[in-house]
Design brief:
This protein has about 110 residues and is α+β, with helices and mostly antiparallel strands. The chain has 3 helices and 7 strands; from the N terminus they run αβββββαβαβ.
């Protein structure tokens, strides 16, 4: 059971957009240090490292642009192309959430 259900939140989240053909390691060069096992890198390239034993639900956010020093480097950064994203599954998720009498958030 997830925490929203456990605490009876009046809303549920809708899944993130899907980006077809995205390279999983396109952000690797922006992290010049090792990331903890289990780290998730989001669509913007922000790494979310797992928390400690005492704060399992927390993550440490690592920002890939922290070392950028020029406009050229920023222009080369692989920002997500939302025109190529697939959100077709979200309509079904929203309908399922609404059928339970809850608000859908995303």
């Amino acid at each position: 059971m997830d925490y929203a259900q456990f605490f009876e939140f009046p809303m549920r989240g809708v899944g993130d957009l899907a980006f077809k053909g995205e390279k999983k390691n396109k952000f690797d060069k922006y992290y010049k240090y090792d990331l903890k096992p289990g780290t998730h890198i989001d669509v913007f390239g922000v790494a979310h490292e797992p928390g400690s034993e005492s704060a399992k639900h927390m993550t440490r956010m690592r920002h890939p642009l922290i070392g950028i020093e020029s406009l050229e480097e920023l222009k080369e950064y692989p920002f997500p192309d939302f025109s190529q994203a697939d959100g077709s599954f979200q309509k079904v998720q929203v309908e399922e959430i609404h059928a339970k009498g809850l608000a859908a958030i995303g």
